[in-house]
Amino acid sequence: VTIELKNDIRIRGTLKSVDQYLNIKLDDIEVLDLDQYPHLSSVKNIFVRGSVVRYIVLPQAEVDRGLLEDATRR
């Protein structure tokens, strides 16, 4: 997934978990604008507080529609 934060940092990584507050845990992250944020180059795992997230982009090919539809029925 790719997430964009309210401070314009864009991070791509493997989604590990999301809680009810939309706090997100990502593994194997890559900062897309590394020239602007070189201090994040050594970070591999990250926890992002839900209140600082602007967008979350899920690749359509990786979304399990059956699982998603089943989860929304609960």
Structure description:
The protein is mostly beta strands and about 70 residues long. It has one domain: SH3 type barrels (Roll), CATH 2.30.30. It is about 10% helix and about 40% strand. A 5-stranded antiparallel sheet has the order 4-3-2-1-5, with no helix packed on it.
Task: Please give a quick description of this structure.
This is U6 snRNA-associated Sm-like protein LSm2. The chain has 74 residues and is mostly beta strands. Helix content is 11%, strand content 39%.
Total count of strands: 5
The helical percent reads 10-25%
The figure for the number of domains is 1
Radius of gyration, CA atoms, in whole angstroms: 13 Å
CATH uppermost class: Mainly Beta
* Helix-and-strand structural type: mainly beta
Which residue ranges are poorly predicted, with pLDDT under 50 across at least 5 consecutive positions? none
Give the strand content. Answer: 35-45%
- Overall geometry: elongated
| Topology order in helix (H) and strand (E) letters | EEEEEH
Widest sheet: strand ordering? 4-3-2-1-5
Report, as a whole number of angstroms, the end-to-end distance.
24 Å
Largest sheet at a glance? 5 strands, antiparallel
Query: What is the count of DSSP helices, taking H or I runs of 4+ residues?
Result: 1
GO biological process, one term: tRNA processing
Subcellular location: Nucleus
GO molecular function: poly(U) RNA binding; U2 snRNA binding
Keywords: mRNA processing, mRNA splicing, Nucleus, Ribonucleoprotein, RNA-binding, Spliceosome
